[in-house]
Amino acid sequence: MNRLRHLILLIASLWAGAALAEPRMACVYDPVGRAGDYHRMVEELAVAAAGWGVELQLRAYTDEETAVRDYQAGQCDAVLATGVRLQRFNRFPTTLEAIGALPSYGELKAMVDAVARYPSAAARMRAGDHETVGIVPVGAVYLFLHDRKRGTVEGLAGLRIGTMDYDKAAPVMVDRVGAVQVPVDLGSVGPRFNNGDVDVCYMSAAGYRPFELERGLQKGGGILRYPLAQATLQLMVRAPRFPADFGAKARQHFAAHFDANLALVLAVEKDIPAGLWVEVTPAQKAAYDELFLRSRVRLRDEQGAYDGNMLNAMKKLRCSGDASRPECAENLE
Fold first, then answer.
1. pLDDT at residue 10 above 70?
2. Could you tell me the end-to-end alpha-carbon distance of the chain, in angstroms, rounded to an integer?
3. For residue 165, what pLDDT is reported?
4. What is the dihedral of CA 198, 105, 95, 297, to 10 degrees?
5. What are the residue boundaries of the structural domains of the chain, listed by start?
6. Ramachandran assignment for 157, one of left (phi > 0), alpha (psi -120 to 50 degrees), beta (any other)
7. Domain 141-229+276-329 grouped into CATH 3.40.640.10
8. What pLDDT, on the 0 to 100 scale, is given for residue 316?
9. Cβ(36)–Cβ(43) under 8 Å?
10. What is the pLDDT of residues 51-83, one digit of tens each?
11. What is the torsional sign of CA 4, 10, 11, 12?
């Protein structure tokens, strides 16, 4: 009887301790809201976190910048947003989205695994109080063109390219190819492309259906099958508000779910009619690689948009897969 009583008291004390633990709030951006896949992914983390002694509550946002502002204002302990939006807090993890730095999903997966596995990389995931604890693939970013024949680096000269107003990388690339920058946002990019106000826009395949981009591709348009960048959603937390090992456990959780999350992206890409894709030749790929390299260096050195350590790690990864790439003989990254 005494043993039973002691057991009941122990369980009661554990429950009391859990009740005293303050829940942590996550601002979760998902264009679909609470019913979206990305919100669900953070819900899955919350289930796992409960086993780590952390109660994570979720607040859904369909406007990304509002979610980030609320996090910055201290209304949330965590935020899920795109890397480009979180660049202001820590450039190391957000540099995964650097222009042309990861040409394939396999390379992105390798980097996600690396920051989850190696302490030296994990240490850079924190800057001040802000720690990136999860990376979700959203899809490669592609060029959508009204005229599929203008998909070469030279062919972009003079074209009007819709450029997201918060994206530091795109204006640099637009300037290098001699195109015209036309400021757009997520609310205007689809209509402006479809109505012909811009000749080119860029986004992941996930935007093809929601933004009805098939309308802008109907008469000779196409999607260049060579990624400009890898779009990601990243979960950032205020580290002092969480246990010391929360970041490591969360990064391992997201790395373990990478393939399942990527499957959603691949399904969306497969849904695009095959005839809309524009294949690029090896010579065209080389020209784009050179454009991307020069843009990354400028964004690192002149604008401070990219982290040099992450750029160097991604260069090593690219060159380990293909040592014949011209950049491998240079010391620019």
1. no
2. 69
3. 78
4. -70
5. 23-137+231-271, 141-229+276-329
6. beta
7. no
8. 97
9. no
10. 999 999 999 999 999 999 999 999 999 999 999
11. positive
Residue 28, pLDDT above cutoff 90: yes
Identical fold between 23-137+231-271 and 141-229+276-329: yes
- The tokens of 318 are what? 């690219």
DSSP 247-295: HHHHHHHHHHTHHHHHHHHHHHHHHS-GGGEE---HHHHHHHHHHHHHH
Confidence of residue 166 (pLDDT cuts 50, 70, 90): confident
Distance CA(311)–CA(267), nearest Å, equals 29
Q: What does the block give as tokens for 129?
A: 């109080």
Which structure tokens are listed for 140?
Answer: 């490669």
**CA-angle at 308, arms to 302 and 311, nearest 5°:** 110
Length of the chain: 333
Architecture of domain 23-137+231-271: 3-Layer(aba) Sandwich (3.40)
Q: Average per-residue pLDDT in the chain?
A: 92
Give the number of other CB atoms < 10 A from CB of residue 104.
13
323 by DSSP, 3-state: which?
coil
**Mean per-residue pLDDT, 138-161:** 97
Residue 314 structure tokens: 């991604």
Distance CA 211, CA 234 (A): 23
Q: Tokens in use for 152?
A: 């070469």
User: Looking at residue 6, what is its pLDDT?
Assistant: 39
Q: Maximum CA pair distance of the chain?
A: 85
The answer, yes or no, to whether residue 98 has pLDDT greater than 70, is: yes
Answer yes or no: are the C-beta atoms of 237 and 168 closer than 8 Å.
Answer: no
Using alpha carbons, select from 217, 228, 67 the residue that is nearest to residue 153: 228
Query: What confidence score (pLDDT) does residue 21 get?
Result: 63
pLDDT at 226 over 70: yes
Cβ–Cβ under 8 Å, residues 27 and 75: yes
Helix (H) or strand (E) holding 169: helix 169-177
Q: At residue 269, does pLDDT exceed 50?
A: yes
Cβ partners under 8 Å of residue 301, min gap 6: none
Instruction: State pTM to two decimals.
Output: 0.90
